[in-house]
Write a structure and sequence with these properties.
Elements (H helix, E strand, L loop, with lengths): L2 E4 L2 E4 L4 E7 L9 E7 L6 E6 L6 E3 L7 E6 L4 E6 L8 E8 L9 H4 L7 E2 L3 E6 L1
Parallel strand pairs: 2-11
Antiparallel strand pairs: 1-3, 3-8, 4-5, 4-9, 5-6, 7-8, 9-10, 9-11
C-alpha cells in the first residue's frame, strides 16, 4: 500500500495543523493499523501516535498527549493527525506508516509504538514550529 502525507507547514508556537495520510486504492485500508512517527535532524525516528485498524484504540507518545489526536476515515482510506498547541520541539518530518493487512488485529500498545512493526511508509511531510 502506498501512503501519501500532506498538511505540513511552517507555523508559530501555539498554532494547529492537521496532517493527512492517504492510502492508495486497491487495498483494504480498514485492515491496516496506522502509526504516525516523526524524525528531527540528527535524531532517530520517534513514535507519535497510532490507531487500530477499526479506529477504536489509540495511543500517544507522552510528549504529545493532550495536544494531538489521531483519527481515521476508512471510507476515505485516510488517517489524520490533529496537532494543537504546537511547540518548537514538535519540529520534525512526520511520517505515517501502515502495519498489515491485519485480518484480525490483536492490539498491542508496544507493537503500535515500534518502528519495525510497520510495513509501509509514506515520504513524510515537514512540520516546522517557530517560537
Amino acid at each position: 500500500v502506498q501512503l501519501v502525507e500532506s498538511g505540513g507547514g511552517l507555523v508559530q508556537a501555539g498554532d494547529s495543523l492537521r496532517l493527512s495520510c492517504a492510502a492508495s486504492s486497491g487495498h483494504t485500508f480498514s485492515q491496516y493499523r496506522i502509526g504516525w512517527f516523526r524524525q528531527a535532524p540528527g535524531k532517530e525516528r520517534a513514535f507519535v501516535a497510532a490507531i487500530s485498524s477499526d479506529g477504536v484504540r489509540t495511543i500517544f507518545a507522552e510528549s504529545v498527549k493532550g495536544r494531538f489526536t489521531i483519527s481515521r476515515d476508512n471510507n476515505k482510506d485516510t488517517a489524520y493527525l490533529q496537532m494543537n498547541n504546537l511547540k518548537p520541539e514538535d519540529t520534525a518530518k512526520y511520517y505515517c506508516a501502515a502495519d498489515g493487512p491485519l485480518y484480525v488485529e490483536y492490539w498491542s500498545s508496544q507493537e503500535a509504538q515500534t518502528v519495525e512493526e510497520y510495513d509501509y511508509w509514506g515520504q513524510g511531510t515537514q512540520v516546522t514550529v517557530s517560537s
